Please model this.
Amino acid sequence: MWIKICAHTSLADAQLAADACADAIGFVFAASPRQVTVEQVAAVVAALPPDLTHVGVFQTRDFEEIVAAVRAAALHGIQLHGGLDVPLIDRLRAAFGDRMFLIQTLHWPLDQDSAQTEKNLRDDLRTLRRHGGADAVLLDAKTATAAGGTGKPIDWKRAQEAIAAEAGKMRIILAGGLTPENVAQAIQTVRPWGVDVASGVEKQPGRKDPARVRAFIEAARAAFAAIENHPLTAVTPR
Model:
Protein backbone atom coordinates (compact mmCIF):
# COMPACT_ATOMS: atom_id res chain seq x y z
CA MET A 1 0.00 0.00 0.00
CA TRP A 2 1.59 3.25 -1.19
CA ILE A 3 -0.08 6.58 -1.87
CA LYS A 4 1.56 9.46 -3.70
CA ILE A 5 0.06 12.94 -4.02
CA CYS A 6 1.76 14.47 -7.03
CA ALA A 7 2.34 17.82 -8.73
CA HIS A 8 2.90 20.06 -5.71
CA THR A 9 3.75 23.71 -6.28
CA SER A 10 3.85 25.02 -2.70
CA LEU A 11 5.00 24.09 0.78
CA ALA A 12 1.44 24.44 2.09
CA ASP A 13 0.14 21.77 -0.28
CA ALA A 14 3.09 19.46 0.34
CA GLN A 15 2.62 19.82 4.10
CA LEU A 16 -1.07 19.08 3.64
CA ALA A 17 -0.22 15.76 1.99
CA ALA A 18 2.26 14.94 4.75
CA ASP A 19 -0.28 15.75 7.47
CA ALA A 20 -2.85 13.55 5.69
CA CYS A 21 -0.34 10.66 5.90
CA ALA A 22 0.56 10.32 2.23
CA ASP A 23 3.55 8.04 1.67
CA ALA A 24 5.08 10.22 -1.03
CA ILE A 25 4.73 13.53 -2.82
CA GLY A 26 5.76 14.46 -6.34
CA PHE A 27 7.15 17.52 -8.06
CA VAL A 28 6.82 18.03 -11.83
CA PHE A 29 9.89 19.44 -13.57
CA ALA A 30 8.44 19.09 -17.08
CA ALA A 31 6.49 21.81 -18.88
CA SER A 32 3.08 21.85 -17.21
CA PRO A 33 0.68 24.16 -15.33
CA ARG A 34 2.18 22.37 -12.30
CA GLN A 35 5.82 22.81 -13.25
CA VAL A 36 8.27 23.81 -10.51
CA THR A 37 11.95 24.68 -10.43
CA VAL A 38 14.73 22.86 -8.64
CA GLU A 39 15.14 25.84 -6.32
CA GLN A 40 11.46 25.80 -5.37
CA VAL A 41 11.53 22.09 -4.63
CA ALA A 42 14.72 22.31 -2.57
CA ALA A 43 13.09 24.93 -0.32
CA VAL A 44 9.93 22.84 0.10
CA VAL A 45 11.72 19.55 0.76
CA ALA A 46 13.91 21.13 3.43
CA ALA A 47 10.79 21.89 5.49
CA LEU A 48 9.13 18.47 5.16
CA PRO A 49 9.34 15.32 7.33
CA PRO A 50 12.34 13.18 6.34
CA ASP A 51 10.27 9.99 6.24
CA LEU A 52 8.05 11.38 3.45
CA THR A 53 9.33 10.18 0.05
CA HIS A 54 10.05 13.13 -2.27
CA VAL A 55 9.83 12.23 -5.98
CA GLY A 56 10.84 14.28 -9.01
CA VAL A 57 8.88 13.73 -12.23
CA PHE A 58 11.10 14.11 -15.30
CA GLN A 59 9.99 14.26 -18.92
CA THR A 60 13.59 14.70 -20.07
CA ARG A 61 15.91 11.78 -20.77
CA ASP A 62 18.98 13.92 -20.14
CA PHE A 63 20.97 12.00 -17.51
CA GLU A 64 23.03 14.96 -16.34
CA GLU A 65 19.98 17.17 -15.99
CA ILE A 66 18.15 14.59 -13.88
CA VAL A 67 21.15 13.92 -11.65
CA ALA A 68 21.75 17.62 -11.04
CA ALA A 69 18.10 18.22 -10.12
CA VAL A 70 17.93 15.22 -7.79
CA ARG A 71 21.04 16.24 -5.91
CA ALA A 72 20.14 19.93 -5.67
CA ALA A 73 16.60 19.21 -4.45
CA ALA A 74 17.58 16.30 -2.16
CA LEU A 75 15.03 13.95 -3.72
CA HIS A 76 14.42 10.35 -2.68
CA GLY A 77 12.85 9.22 -5.94
CA ILE A 78 12.94 9.68 -9.70
CA GLN A 79 9.89 9.17 -11.90
CA LEU A 80 10.86 8.81 -15.56
CA HIS A 81 7.95 10.15 -17.57
CA GLY A 82 9.49 10.56 -21.02
CA GLY A 83 9.14 7.03 -22.35
CA LEU A 84 10.82 3.71 -21.63
CA ASP A 85 14.61 4.07 -21.64
CA VAL A 86 16.34 1.04 -20.10
CA PRO A 87 19.89 2.43 -20.51
CA LEU A 88 18.84 5.56 -18.62
CA ILE A 89 17.52 3.41 -15.76
CA ASP A 90 20.88 1.63 -15.67
CA ARG A 91 22.83 4.90 -15.55
CA LEU A 92 20.68 6.31 -12.78
CA ARG A 93 20.94 3.11 -10.76
CA ALA A 94 24.71 3.18 -11.13
CA ALA A 95 24.81 6.83 -10.05
CA PHE A 96 22.57 6.53 -6.99
CA GLY A 97 22.57 2.87 -6.03
CA ASP A 98 19.74 1.27 -4.14
CA ARG A 99 19.01 4.38 -2.07
CA MET A 100 17.14 5.97 -5.00
CA PHE A 101 13.54 4.88 -5.70
CA LEU A 102 13.27 4.63 -9.49
CA ILE A 103 9.82 4.70 -11.07
CA GLN A 104 9.32 4.08 -14.78
CA THR A 105 6.11 5.50 -16.22
CA LEU A 106 4.30 3.55 -18.92
CA HIS A 107 1.59 5.47 -20.74
CA TRP A 108 -1.85 4.32 -21.79
CA PRO A 109 -2.80 6.47 -24.83
CA LEU A 110 -6.49 7.28 -24.59
CA ASP A 111 -6.80 8.13 -28.28
CA GLN A 112 -5.47 4.80 -29.59
CA ASP A 113 -6.94 1.35 -30.07
CA SER A 114 -7.28 -0.32 -26.66
CA ALA A 115 -6.21 -3.73 -27.91
CA GLN A 116 -2.98 -2.35 -29.36
CA THR A 117 -2.40 -0.27 -26.25
CA GLU A 118 -2.75 -3.36 -24.07
CA LYS A 119 -0.30 -5.26 -26.28
CA ASN A 120 2.24 -2.45 -26.02
CA LEU A 121 1.80 -2.37 -22.24
CA ARG A 122 2.37 -6.12 -22.03
CA ASP A 123 5.55 -5.79 -24.09
CA ASP A 124 6.90 -2.98 -21.92
CA LEU A 125 6.01 -4.76 -18.68
CA ARG A 126 7.80 -7.86 -19.92
CA THR A 127 10.88 -5.80 -20.75
CA LEU A 128 10.94 -4.13 -17.35
CA ARG A 129 10.33 -7.38 -15.49
CA ARG A 130 13.26 -9.03 -17.23
CA HIS A 131 15.48 -6.00 -16.79
CA GLY A 132 14.76 -5.54 -13.09
CA GLY A 133 16.30 -2.07 -12.75
CA ALA A 134 13.19 -0.07 -11.86
CA ASP A 135 11.71 -0.20 -8.37
CA ALA A 136 8.18 0.39 -9.62
CA VAL A 137 6.13 0.93 -12.76
CA LEU A 138 3.56 3.72 -12.91
CA LEU A 139 0.66 3.45 -15.35
CA ASP A 140 -0.67 6.82 -16.49
CA ALA A 141 -3.11 8.08 -19.08
CA LYS A 142 -1.86 9.97 -22.12
CA THR A 143 -3.58 12.09 -24.75
CA ALA A 144 -2.34 13.79 -27.89
CA THR A 145 -1.69 16.94 -25.89
CA ALA A 146 -0.81 15.67 -22.39
CA ALA A 147 1.42 12.87 -21.10
CA GLY A 148 0.01 13.15 -17.60
CA GLY A 149 -2.39 15.16 -15.50
CA THR A 150 -5.15 14.38 -17.98
CA GLY A 151 -7.83 13.79 -15.36
CA LYS A 152 -8.96 10.77 -17.39
CA PRO A 153 -8.72 7.11 -16.29
CA ILE A 154 -7.13 4.33 -18.25
CA ASP A 155 -8.98 1.10 -19.09
CA TRP A 156 -8.63 -0.54 -15.68
CA LYS A 157 -9.84 -3.98 -16.76
CA ARG A 158 -7.45 -4.25 -19.70
CA ALA A 159 -4.62 -2.88 -17.59
CA GLN A 160 -5.30 -5.48 -14.90
CA GLU A 161 -5.20 -8.27 -17.48
CA ALA A 162 -1.85 -7.04 -18.79
CA ILE A 163 -0.46 -6.72 -15.26
CA ALA A 164 -1.64 -10.20 -14.28
CA ALA A 165 -0.02 -11.69 -17.37
CA GLU A 166 3.29 -9.82 -17.46
CA ALA A 167 4.14 -7.86 -14.31
CA GLY A 168 5.10 -10.73 -12.04
CA LYS A 169 6.12 -9.27 -8.67
CA MET A 170 6.85 -5.77 -9.99
CA ARG A 171 5.33 -2.94 -7.98
CA ILE A 172 2.58 -1.33 -10.03
CA ILE A 173 1.44 2.23 -9.27
CA LEU A 174 -1.86 3.22 -10.83
CA ALA A 175 -2.42 6.82 -11.96
CA GLY A 176 -4.56 8.58 -14.52
CA GLY A 177 -7.90 10.14 -13.66
CA LEU A 178 -8.06 8.90 -10.08
CA THR A 179 -10.30 10.80 -7.67
CA PRO A 180 -11.65 10.31 -4.15
CA GLU A 181 -14.83 9.03 -5.80
CA ASN A 182 -13.29 6.32 -8.00
CA VAL A 183 -10.01 5.30 -6.35
CA ALA A 184 -11.60 2.44 -4.39
CA GLN A 185 -13.07 0.92 -7.56
CA ALA A 186 -9.74 1.37 -9.34
CA ILE A 187 -7.85 -0.42 -6.57
CA GLN A 188 -10.39 -3.23 -6.44
CA THR A 189 -10.16 -3.73 -10.21
CA VAL A 190 -6.43 -3.32 -10.87
CA ARG A 191 -5.04 -4.32 -7.45
CA PRO A 192 -1.92 -2.18 -7.74
CA TRP A 193 0.85 -1.80 -5.18
CA GLY A 194 0.19 1.94 -5.03
CA VAL A 195 -1.80 4.86 -6.43
CA ASP A 196 -0.83 8.33 -7.61
CA VAL A 197 -3.05 11.38 -7.99
CA ALA A 198 -2.61 15.00 -9.09
CA SER A 199 -5.54 16.72 -10.80
CA GLY A 200 -8.11 14.55 -8.99
CA VAL A 201 -7.42 16.33 -5.68
CA GLU A 202 -7.03 19.87 -7.01
CA LYS A 203 -9.29 22.91 -6.79
CA GLN A 204 -7.36 24.39 -9.74
CA PRO A 205 -4.22 23.34 -11.63
CA GLY A 206 -1.32 23.37 -9.19
CA ARG A 207 -3.46 24.03 -6.10
CA LYS A 208 -4.65 21.18 -3.89
CA ASP A 209 -8.07 20.93 -2.27
CA PRO A 210 -7.48 19.90 1.38
CA ALA A 211 -10.77 18.03 1.70
CA ARG A 212 -10.18 16.06 -1.50
CA VAL A 213 -6.61 15.17 -0.53
CA ARG A 214 -7.80 13.77 2.79
CA ALA A 215 -10.77 12.00 1.19
CA PHE A 216 -8.55 10.41 -1.48
CA ILE A 217 -6.07 9.05 1.06
CA GLU A 218 -8.83 7.73 3.32
CA ALA A 219 -10.63 6.03 0.42
CA ALA A 220 -7.43 4.51 -0.95
CA ARG A 221 -6.29 3.15 2.41
CA ALA A 222 -9.72 1.65 3.08
CA ALA A 223 -9.74 0.00 -0.35
CA PHE A 224 -6.27 -1.45 0.09
CA ALA A 225 -7.23 -2.74 3.54
CA ALA A 226 -10.29 -4.46 2.08
CA ILE A 227 -8.21 -6.53 -0.34
CA GLU A 228 -7.35 -9.77 1.41
CA ASN A 229 -3.92 -11.28 0.91
CA HIS A 230 -2.72 -8.38 -1.21
CA PRO A 231 0.56 -9.77 -2.67
CA LEU A 232 2.67 -6.65 -2.18
CA THR A 233 1.13 -4.96 0.86
CA ALA A 234 4.21 -5.50 2.99
CA VAL A 235 6.73 -4.37 0.38
CA THR A 236 8.34 -0.96 0.93
CA PRO A 237 10.58 1.12 -1.36
CA ARG A 238 14.31 0.58 -1.24
